[in-house]
Amino acid sequence: MARARNLIVAAGLVAFAAAGMAFPFYMASSKKPVIDPTKPLSPQATFRGPYINTGSRDVGPDVGPQKK
């Protein structure tokens, strides 16, 4: 009985992990955009900016003194 239960739990965990890993691919391949371009951005999105993953490359080097 314990072996059968372990197999059921393992199969459930594998199915859950597979669904979690497949979700980003599904979202990327869907035809509908995640953000509706006809509506204004939410306050949180305008605070973060539309390019959240670009980093601070456009700011340039820090010319001030570095405190440690």
From TrEMBL:
Domain of life the protein comes from: Eukaryota
Annotated region (Disordered), positions in chain: 45-68
Protein name per its UniProtKB record: Transmembrane protein
Phylogenetic classification of the source organism: Eukaryota, Viridiplantae, Streptophyta, Embryophyta, Tracheophyta
